[in-house]
Write a structure and sequence with these properties.
- β20, α25 (631-636) and β21 (639-643) form a beta-alpha-beta unit.
- The radius of gyration is 33 Å and the shape is elongated.
- The protein starts with 21 loop residues before the first helix and ends with a helix.
- The chain has a seven-stranded mixed β-sheet with strand order 10-22-21-20-11-18-19, sandwiched between helices. A six-stranded antiparallel β-sheet has the order 2-1-3-9-4-7, with no helix packed on it. Strands 12-17-16-15-14-13 form a six-stranded antiparallel β-sheet, with helices on both faces.
- The longest helix is centred in the last third of the chain and has 35 residues, at 664-698.
- Helix content is 52%, strand content 16%.
- Mean pLDDT is 78; it is low at 1-79.
- The protein is α+β, with helices and mostly antiparallel strands.
Length: 742
């Protein structure tokens, strides 16, 4: 597989700065457009996560809260989990905040009325229980929960209402009301509600981070593929230099077992290279002078030198990483809807708390404390934190699963959009077929031997760069035939060749060549027509003036193409084949695959118009292609899918890239997308219904008739339980991997 065909050019230059510290590199590895600014150093320093100071970790978390106030994600946390180093740092910090909060919240609850009345625990009180609870709650609210308080501050400063505003409102309302009640001499305080709210929300965010961090395993593996140093030949000397310092044009030496640091072209030596982790190519690929190597692959056998052609952000590996990071940081249409709904829910929640307090104060007979209790419960339970978690966790898990299966999805909207595809157009050459001809049939006349015919034909074709000639030579080589040298060779333009091999005169070409040389081929005509009807190219061969047989060459169908079409049919998806070949050849291939609708003899400039034709029929269309001439059609389609062996332009234009060039991955992408959208809908449905039903109950609507009171601490538990359910449900998406493995 040609590694250069897996890249698309980054828009940001590679500008290494050796003065940058690891934390800075990790924090600024991504440009604002999602591309890696300095991937080599980001990869190099990924392994140094243990050296990131605690202050820097806190900076990442607090900075995320500030970003949230400017339009980040929910709960005061931006949660950029696409960089493995930052993901680990943020998850560890969130875990530590949660554990501290948990350790302190347990005695707070036990000292509260909940602990005394529900759990029957009576702890010693050297000072009043309210003061013990106050002292324990302060670090919970103002250290563990500071990310929400600071996030709310920056959100309000930016004139935005988001999750952090609501969480901070609930926490500070419970905490502040308790202080007021203590000053008033009332022992009815809500410190346990404030502590439980912080603890449970932190636990929900920690679970979300764990679920999303799990999706970076594929990225971490890609980061680790790049060696920290490489051997570069400069001024005739071998030097060990950091990978980040390799420049385009440098000559790099590879020994057996070395990881290839950057993309390049072999200039001396030969070897076999394992590209499985980068390109998905399962077998080692032989490399010799002039062949391209891809950074991140492993040199298996020989010693070679290569010239670096693409470094930093331009390498295939950097582009793969950038694409996955961009997908994980993007928003699906469902998430944008949830974000909009969340802003209104913040107003609803705060408004419900105020109205609840006014209603119970004016119409209730429970007094100030009861009104305050119901108001705080309403605010706490109305927090739409689960709504904010609903789609980002599913998107992160889904894109991570796709990356592990060598399916690169460029953004969340694509992941969601693939599920609604009704028609898939597949370009024949390079998508359904291998994209290069191979020998398929050897037909002989009586008195001639098939191996002998092929051996002589290969001798005549040796040295020719024509695809059909190369197919014949490759066919003879694969059969372990010894190929002699031709003593004379003459090309007959448009018809074939004439050559002398081992004293025998060979003619190899079409029927016109045979007719011109007065060779009788009537006995072979029927078989030639049969082969042509099956989409193959028959070539007649004559030896010493007599017809000897036929050699047939065809662009062979990919092994998984038939199963792909069958799965499309089972899923109710229409498969359409598009080809520039003549209609007879195109329909022969389509018939063999079970495709009913064929666009044949399509010129390069017409492909996009055929996509538009299907769209005018009211269908959502995916286009699958690999060539430069497929790019307009990929752009026209609702979803463009590029085969990984395709050109840079095709991959740049597409929404999905199949790294393994396996058409069955198209169906896998559809399966994963549908499973992800299903999880999004489940999460959004649960979160929405929960909020609609929970607010009136927490506000005390059932209390006058049934005496049911939902205290603030129970509201905090139920609200956070909803977030945890959403996060766990997203993680369950991983069960779809068993379907992708088949």
């Amino acid at each position: 597989m040609n590694s250069s065909k897996h890249t698309h050019h980054a828009s940001t230059p590679n500008t290494p700065d050796s003065r940058s510290d690891p934390a800075t590199l990790q924090n600024h590895a991504l440009a604002t457009d999602g591309h890696i600014q300095n991937p080599d150093k980001s990869m190099e320093h990924t392994k140094q996560i243990g050296t990131v100071p605690t202050a820097d970790v806190e900076h990442h978390v607090d900075h995320a809260a500030m970003e949230h106030g400017s339009g980040g994600h929910h709960g005061g946390m931006s949660h950029d989990m696409s960089d493995p180093a930052i993901a680990a740092a943020m998850e560890n910090d969130m875990r530590n905040r949660f554990l501290v909060a948990l350790v302190l919240t347990i005695p707070i609850v036990l000292y509260s009325p909940l602990g005394r009345n529900f759990f029957g625990v009576n702890l010693p009180t050297p000072i009043p229980a309210e003061w013990i609870m106050l002292l324990l709650t302060i670090p919970v609210v103002f250290w563990s929960g500071w990310i929400f308080v600071s996030g709310a501050y920056y959100a309000l400063r930016a004139r935005m209402l988001d999750m952090s505003v609501l969480i901070a409102t609930g926490v500070l309302a419970a905490f502040g009301a308790s202080i007021v009640l203590m000053i008033a001499g009332n022992d009815e305080v809500f410190f346990e509600a404030a502590a439980m709210l912080v603890t449970f929300v932190l636990f929900g965010h920690w679970m979300e981070m764990k679920s999303r961090k799990g999706t970076t395993d594929a990225l971490r593996a890609l980061f680790d593929l790049v060696p920290p140093t490489a051997t570069v030949i400069r001024d005739g000397k071998e030097l060990d230099v950091p990978t980040a310092d390799i420049r385009a044009g440098d000559v790099v030496m590879l020994r057996p077992g070395d990881k290839i640091p950057v993309d390049g072209e072999v200039i001396s030596g030969s070897t076999s290279v394992d590209e499985a982790l980068v390109t998905g190519e399962s077998l080692p690929v032989d490399k010799a002078t002039g062949d391209e190597v891809v950074g991140g692959s492993i040199n298996r056998s020989g010693t070679v030198t290569f010239r670096a052609t693409k470094v930093g952000a331009d390498t295939a590996l950097a582009q793969i990483v950038a694409m996955v990071q961009q997908a994980q940081n993007s928003k699906a249409p469902g998430q944008r809807l949830a974000d909009t709904a969340a802003q209104y829910l913040v107003v609803l929640a705060v408004g419900s708390g105020i109205l609840t307090f006014i209603a119970w104060s004016v119409f209730g007979d429970g007094g100030f404390v009861m009104a305050l209790t119901f108001a705080i419960s309403a605010v706490v339970i109305a927090c739409p934190d689960a709504l904010g978690l609903a789609t980002p966790t599913a998107v992160a898990v889904g894109t991570g699963i796709a990356a592990r299966h060598n399916i690169l999805i460029k953004d969340a909207a694509t992941l969601e959009g693939v599920a609604s595809i009704q028609t898939v157009i597949l370009d024949k050459t390079g998508t359904l077929t291998e994209g290069k001809p191979s020998l398929t049939d050897v037909v002989t006349e009586p008195r001639f031997d098939g191996a002998e015919i092929l051996r002589l034909a290969a001798a005549a074709e040796t040295g020719s760069e024509h695809p059909l000639s190369r197919a014949i030579v490759a066919g003879a080589t694969s059969r372990n035939l010894s190929i002699p040298e031709a003593t004379s060779f003459q090309s007959v333009a448009g018809h074939g060749i004439e050559a002398t091999v081992e004293g025998k005169v060979l003619l190899l070409g079409n029927a016109k060549l045979m007719a011109d040389q007065r060779i009788a081929i009537e006995s072979l005509d029927g078989r030639a027509d049969e082969l042509a009807s099956r989409g193959r190219t028959p070539m007649f061969i004559a030896i010493d003036g007599k017809a000897a047989g036929l050699l047939a060459v065809a662009d062979t169908i990919r092994p998984s193409a038939r199963e792909t079409i069958q799965r499309f049919h089972e899923a109710g998806i229409e498969a359409v084949m598009m080809s520039g070949d003549n209609r007879r050849t195109a329909e022969a291939v389509a018939s063999e695959l079970g495709i009913e609708r064929v666009f044949a003899e399509v010129l390069p400039g017409q492909k996009a118009s055929y996509v538009a034709q299907l769209q005018r029929e009211g269908k959502r269309v995916a286009m699958v292609g690999d060539g430069v001439n497929d790019a307009p059609a990929l752009a026209q389609a609702d979803i463009g899918i590029a085969i990984g062996t395709g050109t840079d332009v095709a991959i740049e234009t597409a929404n999905v890239v199949l790294m393994r060039s396996d058409p069955l991955d198209i169906h896998r992408a559809l399966t994963l997308s549908k499973a992800t959208v299903r999880k999004m809908k489940q999460n959004l449905g649960w979160a929405s219904v929960y909020n609609i039903l929970a607010i009136p109950i927490a506000a005390g609507i059932l209390y006058p008739e049934f005496g049911i009171e939902l205290r603030p601490e129970w509201s905090a538990l139920l609200m956070s339980l909803s977030s945890i359910i959403v996060a766990i449900n997203a993680v369950l998406l991983k069960r779809v991997e068993s379907k992708l493995a088949t």
